[in-house]
Structure formats: C-alpha cells, structure tokens
Amino acid sequence: xxxxxxxxxxxxxxxxxxxxxxxxxxxxxxxxxxxxxxxxxxxxxxxxxxxxxxxxxxxxxxxxxxxxxxxxxxxxxxxxxxxxxxxxxxxxxxxxxxxxxxxxxxxxxxxxxxxxxxxxxxxxxxxxxxxxxxxxxxxxxxxxxxxxxxxxxxxxxxxxxxxxxxxxxxxxxxxxxxxxxxxxxxxxxxxxxxxxxxxxxxxxxxxxxxxxxxxxxxxxxxxxxxxxxxxxxxxxxxxxxxxxxxxxxxxxxxxxxxxxxxxxxxxxxxxxxxxxxxxxxxxxxxxxxxxxxxxxxxxxxxxxxxxxxxxxxxxxxxxxxxxxxxxxxxxxxxxxxxxxxxxxxxxxxxxxxxxxxxxxxxxxxxxxxxxxxxxxxxxxxxxxxxxxxxxxxxxxxxxx
Length: 400
Hints:
alpha+beta; Lysozyme; 2 domains; 6-stranded antiparallel beta sheet; two-stranded antiparallel ribbon; disordered N terminus; disordered C terminus
C-alpha cells in the first residue's frame, strides 16, 4: 500500500517534502523505469499445461476466426491455438524469459525484425498484425511447416506438433508434449467450435486482458519503449516532444501503446492538469458526438475499449504512479475518493468545464494524470523504509 499526502496537509510542509526530495534527486543519478513487471511467480500460478487459459478467450476466439477463414480445419485451428496458449497465453505482448523472443509466437531476433520492418511504422504489438504475419509464415511453409497437410487434418495433435516443430525456438519432444497439447487443444475445440465464423473479425476486445496465470515460456504485460514513428506522431499532434514528458507519464504511455494498440493517438497541451508533462489524453478512434440533450461515444467498440483501458489503469495505480483517471464525465481517484468510487466531474470542478461539449466531458478520450516523478519517488522511498507509527498520522507521511 502506498503512503499518500492528503489535500489537508499544510502547504509549507508539502513544500518542504518536495524540496527535500528534489535535493536528494540532485545528488543521485537519474534512472529510467524500463517496464512494469508481471506479477511475481510466487503470487501467480503457472498456466495449466492441459486446460485452456480461459481468461484469454477473446484472443483465442479472434485467432480461431483468422485460422478458420484461412482454410484451417477446426482441429487444426484448435491445435495451433493450444500451442500459442502454452507458449504465451495468446498474448501479443509476451516476451521470453531471456528477453530475446517477443510476441504472440515468441519470434526470435531475426524473425521479429522482419515482422517489425514489414509494418512500416505500424504498432508491432497489435494482435491483428502479429496474426497476419504468423499466417503468412505458415502459408509460406516456414521452416518446413506443412501448411497443406495441417489445414486438412482432423487431429488436434497433428497440427499442434507440426506447429511446435516449425516455430518453437527449441522444438519439444513429441512424446512429452503430445498428450498435454492434445488435451488443451480439445478444450479449445469444444469451446470455439460453436462460434459462428466471421471473415473480418475485430481484435478490439482482445486488448489489455489480464492473464491470471504465468505461461511456461514467457512473461506478460510488458511496457516496451515506443517507436520513433510514434514519437514523431506525438510531436506532430501535440507540439511537445514525447521525451520531454515526465518519467511516470512516459511509462503509462508505453504501457498503453503496447497493450492497447488501437489507441494510436496520445495527446497533451499547455494547461493540461496537473501540467502538460504529467497528463495524457488517450483518444478513441471514432470520436464522440454532442447533441442538444446529451453526449456519447460514437462507437460501441470504442466505449468498450475505453472502459477496458480505464480498468487497466485503475488496476495499476501503484506501479504506474497514477493520480486520477477521467472517462465518460466521471473521475476515479482512489487516494482521495475511495478505491471503488466514480464521481461526476461537476462534483470535482465547479468552473465552466462542463459546457456540454463531448470532448470536454471525456466521451472521446480518457484523461490520465500521474504523480510528479519527484514526489512519487519520495513516497516510494518512505514506503520502503517502513516509517514508524509515530511518524504516520491518519495516512499522512511526516518528514523530520
């Protein structure tokens, strides 16, 4: 639990705290956060070797549509999905334990570079983009993959073993993995066979899904650096340099960039609260509409996407040093307002903010504010030091 300073703290005391933190920061080398780690293995169980990972059902369903409409039989599609579930829980933001292989199918350095280059600046963490590339590799017979035979197979094990042999970094012993992959594939086959096929499926609902277990071959929920193309787009849209954002804001931007690739526009501006460098707007692709009586998000898919993103951010308040989130004319601030409370913006701001415009009322974007780097670092340090009770009063951190 992080220690916080409530609004009622004496301003002089707050100034002293920040000054002390700044003085400390000036004599220490700055370090940049690299990633928000996945839950520790001690706290999160390993994913089952024989049963489908049900929390990734939306991603498996998307792959099912893509594989089936590409001509793969139902058992073949289930076999491929079983292998991807085993490796990465069907996650496009997976990274191998040695940090070398990346993505849905744990592409190695050469294959990943070829994939990333083929996107010409597109977001490499998109499930749709990774699936398209994987299907192209399969169709080309990469590393001896027998696409024609696998497409027509009636056995889950045939597809799973052929896929593993061609695409695994180190192919598994068939006698060891045949039974668990067959069992996992049979589970996916039973769950996905009733699904009505869609030749043009959307991967919208597959973003930001939290996996309740750790795949055997990968870590998940990474927040890798954004690409130069994204930085250029950010600068062109905002007039600010992405690298000039605060460290905490950049970290959140990286996490959203990787885990929600449909949201391509991250923005800020002078006057952004609390400052331009500590706040980001995550814009929904289809925008919003204001009528004489109401405002609304234009796309149901965007509404679902934005709601999923708010949940993603709320679940990571502490590691991402988030202060508050606004979406759909509601604010969530767990420190000041309670862990599970959304409040109308008019209960927070009494100015002319809510003038009926759908952008002002956050129907086309999510506003996210982070704590300042200095204060967040100071709070984390004090939390690590476990201050004695006589220095903590009603949740306030006191400094000698």
